Predict the 3D structure of the following.
Amino acid sequence: MTMPAMLQRGLTRGLARGALLAGAATLFLAACGSSSKSPIAAPTTSASFVASHSKVAQIASTVPANGDLNPYGLVVVPTSVGDLVAGDTLVSNFNNQANVQGTGTTIVQVSPTGAVSTFAALTTLPAMDACPGGIGLTTALGILPGGWVVVGSLPTGAGGSLLSLDPAGCLIVLNSHGAVAETWSSPNINGPWDLAVEATSSGDAIFVSNVYTRISASASTQSGPCTVVRLDVTLPNGAAPQLTSTTVIGSGFIWMANKAALIQGDTGVTLSSDGTLYVVDAVTNAITSIPNALTRTDAVVAGQDTLSSGGSLNGPLGSTLAPNGDLLVANGNDGNVVEITPAGKQVDTVTLVPNGAGDLFGLTVSPDGSQLLFVNDGTNALDKATSS
Protein backbone atom coordinates (compact mmCIF):
# COMPACT_ATOMS: atom_id res chain seq x y z
CA MET A 1 0.00 0.00 0.00
CA THR A 2 2.92 2.32 0.66
CA MET A 3 4.83 3.66 -2.31
CA PRO A 4 7.60 6.21 -2.84
CA ALA A 5 6.31 9.66 -3.59
CA MET A 6 8.92 10.29 -6.23
CA LEU A 7 6.55 8.89 -8.85
CA GLN A 8 5.74 11.82 -11.12
CA ARG A 9 6.35 14.30 -8.32
CA GLY A 10 6.94 17.83 -9.55
CA LEU A 11 10.43 19.14 -8.84
CA THR A 12 10.89 21.22 -5.73
CA ARG A 13 11.42 24.81 -6.70
CA GLY A 14 13.29 25.90 -3.61
CA LEU A 15 10.97 28.86 -3.16
CA ALA A 16 11.95 29.28 0.45
CA ARG A 17 9.53 31.14 2.67
CA GLY A 18 8.99 30.49 6.18
CA ALA A 19 5.09 28.73 8.56
CA LEU A 20 -2.75 23.42 6.66
CA LEU A 21 -5.52 24.13 8.12
CA ALA A 22 -5.24 25.91 11.38
CA GLY A 23 -2.63 26.42 14.04
CA ALA A 24 1.11 26.06 14.16
CA ALA A 25 0.83 22.41 15.07
CA THR A 26 -2.55 20.99 14.07
CA LEU A 27 -4.08 21.78 10.70
CA PHE A 28 -7.23 20.61 9.03
CA LEU A 29 -8.55 21.11 5.55
CA ALA A 30 -11.59 21.91 3.58
CA ALA A 31 -13.97 20.52 1.82
CA CYS A 32 -16.61 19.17 -0.01
CA GLY A 33 -14.42 20.46 1.09
CA SER A 34 -13.71 21.66 2.24
CA SER A 35 -14.07 20.32 5.09
CA SER A 36 -11.54 22.73 6.44
CA LYS A 37 -10.63 22.39 10.03
CA SER A 38 -9.12 24.26 12.92
CA PRO A 39 -7.13 23.05 15.92
CA ILE A 40 -9.57 21.60 18.43
CA ALA A 41 -9.13 20.63 22.04
CA ALA A 42 -9.89 17.14 23.33
CA PRO A 43 -13.62 16.30 23.23
CA THR A 44 -15.66 17.49 26.16
CA THR A 45 -19.26 17.02 27.18
CA SER A 46 -21.23 20.18 26.42
CA ALA A 47 -24.33 21.49 24.73
CA SER A 48 -24.79 21.44 20.98
CA PHE A 49 -22.49 23.84 19.16
CA VAL A 50 -24.66 24.44 16.11
CA ALA A 51 -27.78 25.13 18.17
CA SER A 52 -26.10 28.26 19.52
CA HIS A 53 -24.63 29.25 16.14
CA SER A 54 -27.66 29.69 13.93
CA LYS A 55 -27.51 33.39 13.08
CA VAL A 56 -26.11 33.59 9.54
CA ALA A 57 -24.51 36.59 7.84
CA GLN A 58 -22.37 37.07 4.76
CA ILE A 59 -18.74 38.05 5.24
CA ALA A 60 -17.86 38.74 1.59
CA SER A 61 -18.24 37.64 -2.00
CA THR A 62 -15.66 35.07 -3.07
CA VAL A 63 -15.77 36.01 -6.78
CA PRO A 64 -12.32 37.27 -7.88
CA ALA A 65 -11.48 39.58 -10.78
CA ASN A 66 -11.54 36.73 -13.32
CA GLY A 67 -15.11 35.83 -12.34
CA ASP A 68 -14.48 32.32 -10.94
CA LEU A 69 -17.51 30.84 -9.17
CA ASN A 70 -18.50 28.00 -6.82
CA PRO A 71 -16.41 28.38 -3.66
CA TYR A 72 -15.64 24.87 -2.40
CA GLY A 73 -12.70 24.66 0.00
CA LEU A 74 -11.73 26.97 2.84
CA VAL A 75 -9.08 27.22 5.54
CA VAL A 76 -8.22 29.82 8.15
CA VAL A 77 -4.67 31.18 7.98
CA PRO A 78 -2.90 30.22 11.25
CA THR A 79 0.22 32.41 11.02
CA SER A 80 1.16 35.54 9.10
CA VAL A 81 3.87 34.84 6.52
CA GLY A 82 4.40 36.26 3.04
CA ASP A 83 1.00 37.37 1.72
CA LEU A 84 -0.87 35.23 4.25
CA VAL A 85 -2.43 37.11 7.16
CA ALA A 86 -3.29 35.26 10.37
CA GLY A 87 -7.06 35.07 10.88
CA ASP A 88 -7.89 35.54 7.20
CA THR A 89 -9.64 32.75 5.31
CA LEU A 90 -8.52 31.20 2.02
CA VAL A 91 -11.27 29.98 -0.32
CA SER A 92 -10.77 27.90 -3.48
CA ASN A 93 -13.09 28.29 -6.49
CA PHE A 94 -14.19 25.22 -8.48
CA ASN A 95 -15.91 26.83 -11.51
CA ASN A 96 -14.84 29.45 -14.02
CA GLN A 97 -16.73 32.61 -14.98
CA ALA A 98 -18.91 30.58 -17.37
CA ASN A 99 -19.83 28.31 -14.43
CA VAL A 100 -18.15 25.25 -15.96
CA GLN A 101 -17.25 22.75 -13.23
CA GLY A 102 -13.66 21.68 -12.72
CA THR A 103 -12.21 24.81 -14.34
CA GLY A 104 -11.73 27.17 -11.39
CA THR A 105 -8.17 28.43 -11.01
CA THR A 106 -8.23 30.92 -8.14
CA ILE A 107 -7.85 31.08 -4.38
CA VAL A 108 -9.14 34.24 -2.70
CA GLN A 109 -8.15 35.57 0.71
CA VAL A 110 -10.90 37.08 2.88
CA SER A 111 -10.29 39.08 6.04
CA PRO A 112 -12.67 38.85 9.03
CA THR A 113 -13.99 42.28 8.08
CA GLY A 114 -14.73 41.24 4.49
CA ALA A 115 -11.74 42.60 2.57
CA VAL A 116 -11.03 40.32 -0.40
CA SER A 117 -7.87 39.79 -2.45
CA THR A 118 -6.72 37.12 -4.89
CA PHE A 119 -4.07 34.97 -3.24
CA ALA A 120 -3.41 32.75 -6.27
CA ALA A 121 -4.47 32.67 -9.93
CA LEU A 122 -3.21 29.42 -11.45
CA THR A 123 -3.89 29.77 -15.15
CA THR A 124 -0.88 27.62 -16.04
CA LEU A 125 1.65 25.41 -14.28
CA PRO A 126 5.42 25.45 -14.81
CA ALA A 127 6.57 22.92 -17.40
CA MET A 128 8.34 20.84 -14.76
CA ASP A 129 5.25 20.73 -12.54
CA ALA A 130 2.63 18.89 -14.53
CA CYS A 131 -0.82 17.97 -13.24
CA PRO A 132 -2.64 15.17 -15.13
CA GLY A 133 -5.47 16.96 -16.92
CA GLY A 134 -4.59 20.50 -15.83
CA ILE A 135 -6.14 22.80 -13.23
CA GLY A 136 -9.57 22.62 -11.62
CA LEU A 137 -9.33 23.52 -7.92
CA THR A 138 -11.33 21.45 -5.43
CA THR A 139 -12.32 21.54 -1.76
CA ALA A 140 -8.94 20.08 -0.80
CA LEU A 141 -7.20 23.10 0.70
CA GLY A 142 -4.81 23.55 3.60
CA ILE A 143 -1.77 25.37 4.94
CA LEU A 144 1.41 23.66 6.10
CA PRO A 145 3.89 25.20 8.56
CA GLY A 146 5.93 27.85 6.77
CA GLY A 147 2.94 29.10 4.81
CA TRP A 148 2.97 26.36 2.19
CA VAL A 149 -0.55 26.11 0.76
CA VAL A 150 -1.70 22.75 -0.59
CA VAL A 151 -4.71 22.67 -2.93
CA GLY A 152 -6.31 19.81 -4.84
CA SER A 153 -6.99 19.79 -8.56
CA LEU A 154 -9.58 17.67 -10.37
CA PRO A 155 -9.82 19.24 -13.82
CA THR A 156 -12.48 18.56 -16.42
CA GLY A 157 -12.58 18.53 -20.20
CA ALA A 158 -14.77 20.40 -22.67
CA GLY A 159 -17.99 21.62 -21.11
CA GLY A 160 -17.07 20.15 -17.73
CA SER A 161 -16.82 16.57 -18.96
CA LEU A 162 -15.05 13.96 -16.84
CA LEU A 163 -11.56 13.07 -18.03
CA SER A 164 -10.60 9.58 -19.19
CA LEU A 165 -7.23 9.89 -17.43
CA ASP A 166 -6.28 7.55 -14.60
CA PRO A 167 -5.00 9.01 -12.36
CA ALA A 168 -6.49 12.46 -12.90
CA GLY A 169 -5.55 15.64 -11.10
CA CYS A 170 -2.91 16.31 -8.46
CA LEU A 171 -2.06 18.34 -5.38
CA ILE A 172 -0.52 21.75 -6.06
CA VAL A 173 1.87 23.25 -3.50
CA LEU A 174 2.08 27.05 -3.38
CA ASN A 175 4.43 29.27 -1.42
CA SER A 176 3.16 31.99 0.91
CA HIS A 177 2.92 34.42 -2.01
CA GLY A 178 0.64 32.16 -4.05
CA ALA A 179 3.29 31.01 -6.53
CA VAL A 180 3.53 27.35 -7.55
CA ALA A 181 6.40 25.57 -5.80
CA GLU A 182 5.70 22.00 -6.99
CA THR A 183 2.97 19.49 -7.78
CA TRP A 184 2.40 16.02 -6.36
CA SER A 185 0.88 13.27 -8.48
CA SER A 186 0.90 9.48 -8.22
CA PRO A 187 -1.48 6.55 -8.75
CA ASN A 188 -2.65 7.10 -5.16
CA ILE A 189 -3.62 10.73 -5.83
CA ASN A 190 -6.65 10.48 -8.08
CA GLY A 191 -9.23 13.24 -8.01
CA PRO A 192 -8.25 14.79 -4.65
CA TRP A 193 -11.55 16.14 -3.35
CA ASP A 194 -10.85 17.14 0.24
CA LEU A 195 -8.04 16.84 2.76
CA ALA A 196 -6.96 17.27 6.34
CA VAL A 197 -3.47 17.88 7.72
CA GLU A 198 -1.85 16.97 11.02
CA ALA A 199 1.62 18.01 12.17
CA THR A 200 3.59 15.32 14.01
CA SER A 201 7.00 15.16 15.67
CA SER A 202 8.40 13.38 12.62
CA GLY A 203 6.73 15.48 9.91
CA ASP A 204 3.28 16.21 8.56
CA ALA A 205 0.51 13.88 7.45
CA ILE A 206 -2.00 14.93 4.82
CA PHE A 207 -5.18 12.86 4.52
CA VAL A 208 -6.75 13.01 1.06
CA SER A 209 -10.15 11.76 -0.03
CA ASN A 210 -10.03 10.73 -3.68
CA VAL A 211 -13.17 10.66 -5.82
CA TYR A 212 -11.93 9.21 -9.05
CA THR A 213 -10.66 6.17 -10.92
CA ARG A 214 -11.23 5.12 -14.48
CA ILE A 215 -11.93 1.42 -14.70
CA SER A 216 -12.25 2.02 -18.45
CA ALA A 217 -11.43 4.88 -20.76
CA SER A 218 -15.04 5.10 -21.89
CA ALA A 219 -16.58 8.55 -21.59
CA SER A 220 -19.77 6.82 -20.46
CA THR A 221 -18.18 5.66 -17.20
CA GLN A 222 -20.17 7.37 -14.45
CA SER A 223 -18.93 5.64 -11.31
CA GLY A 224 -16.03 3.67 -9.87
CA PRO A 225 -14.01 2.84 -6.75
CA CYS A 226 -12.05 5.42 -4.80
CA THR A 227 -9.82 5.67 -1.74
CA VAL A 228 -8.61 7.68 1.23
CA VAL A 229 -4.84 8.16 1.33
CA ARG A 230 -2.31 9.37 3.89
CA LEU A 231 0.57 11.37 2.48
CA ASP A 232 3.68 11.62 4.63
CA VAL A 233 5.47 14.93 4.18
CA THR A 234 8.73 16.41 5.45
CA LEU A 235 9.52 20.12 5.67
CA PRO A 236 13.23 20.74 4.98
CA ASN A 237 14.55 24.02 6.34
CA GLY A 238 14.34 26.72 3.70
CA ALA A 239 12.83 24.46 1.04
CA ALA A 240 9.44 23.37 -0.21
CA PRO A 241 7.71 20.39 1.45
CA GLN A 242 8.74 16.96 0.24
CA LEU A 243 6.27 14.12 -0.25
CA THR A 244 7.97 10.95 0.99
CA SER A 245 5.26 8.27 0.78
CA THR A 246 1.58 7.58 0.12
CA THR A 247 -0.46 4.94 1.95
CA VAL A 248 -4.03 3.87 1.22
CA ILE A 249 -5.85 3.79 4.58
CA GLY A 250 -9.44 3.69 3.28
CA SER A 251 -10.88 1.69 0.38
CA GLY A 252 -14.21 0.54 -0.98
CA PHE A 253 -15.64 4.02 -1.40
CA ILE A 254 -17.59 4.74 -4.59
CA TRP A 255 -17.66 7.86 -6.71
CA MET A 256 -20.62 8.75 -8.89
CA ALA A 257 -21.00 11.46 -11.49
CA ASN A 258 -23.34 14.18 -10.26
CA LYS A 259 -24.74 17.06 -12.26
CA ALA A 260 -24.83 19.51 -9.35
CA ALA A 261 -21.42 18.77 -7.80
CA LEU A 262 -19.64 17.06 -10.75
CA ILE A 263 -18.85 14.07 -8.53
CA GLN A 264 -20.14 12.63 -5.29
CA GLY A 265 -18.09 10.28 -3.14
CA ASP A 266 -15.94 10.28 -0.02
CA THR A 267 -15.49 13.95 0.74
CA GLY A 268 -14.96 15.60 4.14
CA VAL A 269 -12.05 14.19 6.14
CA THR A 270 -11.55 15.21 9.77
CA LEU A 271 -9.00 13.90 12.27
CA SER A 272 -10.26 13.54 15.86
CA SER A 273 -8.13 14.05 18.95
CA ASP A 274 -7.73 10.27 19.40
CA GLY A 275 -6.25 9.79 15.92
CA THR A 276 -9.43 8.53 14.25
CA LEU A 277 -10.08 9.92 10.79
CA TYR A 278 -13.74 10.54 10.01
CA VAL A 279 -14.59 10.19 6.31
CA VAL A 280 -17.86 11.66 5.06
CA ASP A 281 -19.51 9.68 2.23
CA ALA A 282 -22.05 11.60 0.17
CA VAL A 283 -23.16 8.52 -1.78
CA THR A 284 -24.19 6.39 1.21
CA ASN A 285 -25.11 9.19 3.66
CA ALA A 286 -22.66 7.73 6.15
CA ILE A 287 -19.48 8.53 8.02
CA THR A 288 -16.73 5.90 8.18
CA SER A 289 -14.19 5.87 11.02
CA ILE A 290 -10.56 5.00 10.28
CA PRO A 291 -8.77 4.34 13.61
CA ASN A 292 -5.03 5.00 14.06
CA ALA A 293 -4.98 7.02 10.85
CA LEU A 294 -1.53 8.47 11.52
CA THR A 295 0.22 5.12 11.76
CA ARG A 296 -1.85 2.40 10.09
CA THR A 297 -0.49 0.67 7.00
CA ASP A 298 -3.65 -1.13 5.90
CA ALA A 299 -6.99 0.10 4.63
CA VAL A 300 -10.35 0.21 6.41
CA VAL A 301 -13.15 -0.68 4.01
CA ALA A 302 -15.94 1.88 3.65
CA GLY A 303 -18.74 1.07 6.07
CA GLN A 304 -16.62 -1.36 8.07
CA ASP A 305 -16.59 1.01 11.06
CA THR A 306 -19.49 3.47 10.78
CA LEU A 307 -19.71 6.47 13.10
CA SER A 308 -23.16 7.52 11.92
CA SER A 309 -25.47 7.04 8.94
CA GLY A 310 -28.87 8.10 7.68
CA GLY A 311 -30.93 10.29 9.99
CA SER A 312 -30.38 13.94 9.14
CA LEU A 313 -27.43 13.22 6.85
CA ASN A 314 -28.50 14.23 3.36
CA GLY A 315 -25.76 14.21 0.75
CA PRO A 316 -23.10 15.14 3.35
CA LEU A 317 -20.00 16.88 2.02
CA GLY A 318 -17.66 19.05 4.10
CA SER A 319 -16.86 18.42 7.76
CA THR A 320 -15.01 19.95 10.68
CA LEU A 321 -14.72 19.60 14.46
CA ALA A 322 -16.61 21.82 16.89
CA PRO A 323 -14.87 23.14 20.03
CA ASN A 324 -16.78 20.56 22.08
CA GLY A 325 -15.24 17.71 20.05
CA ASP A 326 -18.37 16.93 18.04
CA LEU A 327 -18.21 16.45 14.27
CA LEU A 328 -20.01 19.03 12.13
CA VAL A 329 -21.13 17.91 8.67
CA ALA A 330 -22.53 20.09 5.87
CA ASN A 331 -25.37 18.58 3.82
CA GLY A 332 -25.17 19.19 0.09
CA ASN A 333 -28.83 18.35 -0.51
CA ASP A 334 -30.65 20.65 1.90
CA GLY A 335 -28.44 23.43 3.31
CA ASN A 336 -28.30 21.95 6.81
CA VAL A 337 -25.39 21.24 9.14
CA VAL A 338 -25.55 18.12 11.31
CA GLU A 339 -23.74 17.79 14.65
CA ILE A 340 -22.58 14.28 15.65
CA THR A 341 -20.95 13.24 18.92
CA PRO A 342 -17.81 11.02 19.06
CA ALA A 343 -20.21 8.23 20.06
CA GLY A 344 -22.07 8.65 16.77
CA LYS A 345 -25.25 10.31 18.03
CA GLN A 346 -26.76 12.99 15.81
CA VAL A 347 -27.54 15.60 18.46
CA ASP A 348 -28.64 18.57 16.37
CA THR A 349 -29.44 19.79 12.86
CA VAL A 350 -29.49 23.49 11.96
CA THR A 351 -30.36 25.15 8.67
CA LEU A 352 -27.60 27.42 7.40
CA VAL A 353 -29.13 28.05 3.96
CA PRO A 354 -32.93 27.66 3.66
CA ASN A 355 -33.84 25.50 0.65
CA GLY A 356 -30.08 25.23 0.20
CA ALA A 357 -29.69 22.20 -2.03
CA GLY A 358 -26.30 22.55 -3.74
CA ASP A 359 -25.21 25.50 -1.58
CA LEU A 360 -23.01 24.00 1.13
CA PHE A 361 -19.57 22.46 0.76
CA GLY A 362 -16.59 23.41 2.93
CA LEU A 363 -16.87 24.64 6.53
CA THR A 364 -14.61 25.33 9.50
CA VAL A 365 -14.64 26.93 12.94
CA SER A 366 -12.92 30.24 13.57
CA PRO A 367 -9.76 30.01 15.73
CA ASP A 368 -11.52 31.44 18.78
CA GLY A 369 -14.48 29.09 18.36
CA SER A 370 -16.99 31.93 18.14
CA GLN A 371 -17.99 31.46 14.49
CA LEU A 372 -18.82 28.68 12.08
CA LEU A 373 -17.42 29.71 8.71
CA PHE A 374 -18.80 28.16 5.53
CA VAL A 375 -18.92 28.72 1.79
CA ASN A 376 -22.26 29.39 0.10
CA ASP A 377 -22.22 28.17 -3.50
CA GLY A 378 -25.63 29.71 -4.15
CA THR A 379 -24.44 33.25 -3.51
CA ASN A 380 -20.72 32.67 -4.19
CA ALA A 381 -19.78 33.99 -0.78
CA LEU A 382 -18.08 33.23 2.51
CA ASP A 383 -20.66 33.25 5.31
CA LYS A 384 -20.55 32.94 9.07
CA ALA A 385 -22.91 31.50 11.65
CA THR A 386 -22.73 33.07 15.09
CA SER A 387 -24.59 32.99 18.38
CA SER A 388 -25.78 36.57 18.14
